[in-house]
């Protein structure tokens, strides 16, 4: 019989010394518009799955995809130019 046990390090992985650094928090904050655009696009796609799509839903999905791509381009351009948000 094989016993299943937990690894203590995994259970208590969030010790005080493992908090995100200020640089990591700044990076997350600079990526937040992209994250929010992705969430909005996923919400639109889920809405389309729940019912028969109408023209308005299709336009909303296209706008969401456009916003997501725009935010990705902005983030990529910032990374290439070395600009800090």
Report the end-to-end length measured between terminal Cα atoms: 55 Å
* Helical amount: over 70%
Strand content: under 5%
Q: How many H/I helical runs? A: 3
- Low-pLDDT ranges: none
What is the N-to-C order of secondary-structure elements (H for helix, E for strand)? HHH
Total of domains: 1
Bulk shape: flat
User: What is the overall pLDDT average?
Assistant: 80
Helix-strand category: mainly alpha
Biggest β-sheet strands, sense, barrel: none
Question: What is the rounded Rg?
Answer: 20 Å
Q: What's the number of extended β-strand segments?
A: 0
Feature tags:
single chain, 85 residues, mainly alpha, 3 helices, flat
Report on the architecture of this protein.
The protein contains 3 helices and no strands. With 85 residues, it is mostly helical. It has helices at residues 8-11, 22-50, 55-81. It has one domain (19-81). InterPro entries: DUF6284. Residues 59-85 are annotated as: Disordered.
Task: Present the secondary structure layout.
Blueprint: H1 8-11, H2 22-50, H3 55-81
Helix pairs in contact: 2-3
Quick summary:
With 85 residues, the protein is mostly helical.
């Amino acid at each position: 019989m094989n016993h299943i046990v937990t690894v203590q390090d995994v259970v208590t992985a969030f010790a005080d010394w493992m908090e995100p650094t200020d640089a990591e928090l700044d990076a997350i904050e600079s990526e937040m518009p992209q994250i929010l655009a992705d969430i909005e696009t996923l919400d639109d796609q889920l809405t389309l799955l729940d019912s028969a799509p109408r023209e308005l839903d299709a336009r909303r999905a296209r706008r969401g995809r456009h916003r997501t791509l725009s935010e990705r381009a902005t983030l990529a351009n910032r990374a290439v130019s070395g600009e800090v948000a």
